[in-house]
Amino acid sequence: MSTVVTPRQPSVVIAPALSTRLMPYALLAPAFLVTLFIVFFPMAQAIYTSFFDLILWKPNASRFVGFGNYIKLFNDPVFWTALGHTAVWIGLTVPLQMGLGLITALLLNREFPWRGLARALIIIPWALPSVVIALMWRWIYDPNTGVLNDILLHLSIIQTAVPWLADPDLALYAIIATLTWQGFPFFAVMILAGLQGIPRSQYEAASIDGASAWRQFRHITLPGIAPVLGTAGLLRVIWVANSMDVIFVMTGGGPGYATHTLPLYAFVRARQNLDFGYGTAIAVTFTLLLGVVVAVYLMRTMREVER
Amino acid sequence: MSYFKKLTMGVAIGAMLAAGAAQAETVRFWYHFDNPENPMADLVAKFETANPGITIEAENVPWNSYYDTLYTSLVGGNAPDAAMVKLFAQPRLVEMGALEPIGERIDAWPAKADLLDNLLELNKAQDGQHYYLPIQYVALYLYYRADLFEQAGLKPPATCDEFRDAAIKLTKAPDTYGFGLRGGKGGWDQWGAFVLSQGAELKPGGLTSDKAVAANQWLIDLFQKDKVIPPSAPNDGFQEITGAFKSGKTAMTIHHIGSSNDMVKALGDKVSAVPVPECGGGHWTSYGDESLAVFSASEAKDAAWKWISFLAEGENNVAFNKATGQMTVTQSGAANWKLHERRFVDATVNSLPFAKVLPQNTATSEFVNTAWQINMQQALTGQITSKQMMEQLEGLFAQ
Fold first, then answer.
1. Which end of chain B has the lower number of beta carbons within 10 A, N or C?
2. Domains within chain B, CATH numbers bracketed
3. Of the candidates A166, A252, A254, which has its C-beta nearest B231's C-beta?
4. Looking at CA atoms only, how far is residue A143 from chain B in angstroms?
């Protein structure tokens, strides 16, 4: 007979020293404090400011108006115009960037000479500062001296120069085209990384089974890059929604209100009209709307962390 | 010991000098120059040599956001000690309590007598105080292509009717247009020549009179019906209108002497200038002022005053205007003016009798900064009528 000796569990667990337990918090504290100070504190202050009638050059006339700014906001036709433009702005820019990025990534994933160079060059629009891009495209679109009209006139596609940024029906779409050009490399690079993570063997197996190129794309490629598309798409929605620098430089929101999006409207009210109460009310409202998208993104990220 | 004595004395003197240097005042100064090669560094060096103990930190703040940045920094408590300022901003700055009265300093200033007549009076605030020291001025006039006018057998227009007639004759769309209108930011001063000349005024009831609405409609018609203005006009700013004129796309435009050297560089003798046309019996052009002010929150007011008055004196003012391309405010500087071709100086001087500034009131800032542009663009593109535009604008002044 033999006795199985089970190792005895120690009955008392010695707690790690207090300093060890506090260590993670101490390490996180600087980042937490900085975030608190530069993100949450201004956010709280913005909400607070939005309850006041605060015009910066009338510092003595400031007074508490409760939800007054919000009531004014919902009765403001410019707010609804800007909200509509914001929806078009996000709804077109992100899918276009994603589509163009996907095509680019598929092309760059093939074997061809100078592929490394092509991959490096494709990043240029993404690496340029927004203001430079906006100024560059402003001149490209210029009806008097711009190159776009020149090319279209030479090809006889149009008969007279089109005022791309001065026509209220075209201006927003012209800027969307600019932002699509600027943002697609981000998708291309992300998707390319996703594509390279799909094992070759899956494609080999599929082609042995006689799957066509389209079926391979639908059943191997797309599922392979779906997580990347989801995360990058959500991130991009948040960035595009907030981005107003390109619009501001290209048209300043005009002609009239034709290219006003909500962040731009908030900026114009707060910074150019110095109406901080109303400006922050717009910003807070927009933050709440965008909060839905942010919540979806956070849920996704959490799930991935838990996995 | 004498050696030690000397040493301690040396140390003491050294410490005193260091303390003196630490007390040296710094004047933060904001300005805006379009010209990339600006000689501010030379002026600063000259001033600092003449005034040891004062350091000037001069910062070129981009024009497009100049006032936004200035107002927010004033409220934020991070304003400069002195800055370049325009008259339209004075009511707001006064209301904010941001300006330091400098009337007494101006009276005691030896170079006061050298300032051009009437400038100080023009710069006086509504409360009767002096806050602004003039530094340069311009008046808007009409640039025209002398060669194109001659080919078409036309004379430079003196009235709005002649102006429209010439614009129609010189338009060969889409290659050339009669007039380059600035429909984007800052274009109110062109608009004023056509609308404020005809009795429209920035005050309650001043913009919605039939005559004012009709004058505004006339300008809109130049764009919509006569099509003598390039289709890009609603979005055009300074770069676009001067660019189009220099490239021969437009035959006339309205700007001031600040762009004349550039225009001559591109077009030579083919460009000339006359005062803006007289419209409906009235004559109005924008007096483009620029002054310097000291801010009340400054801790170095004396030094700041020394610096701004230095810039307004004879040859320093000429050097300053060399950079901005505008006109000196001093009599001694004007007597021997060589920075611009004579014809542009004449057009400026001939415009002075009817050159005006916008009314000094707090709504004017909003009119200039955003409201005019948004409404003009909507009217030009047919989203609102002339009357609606004028009602919207008048709403600003009703409060």
1. N
2. 26-138+287-349 (3.40.190.10), 140-285+356-398 (3.40.190.10)
3. A166
4. 6
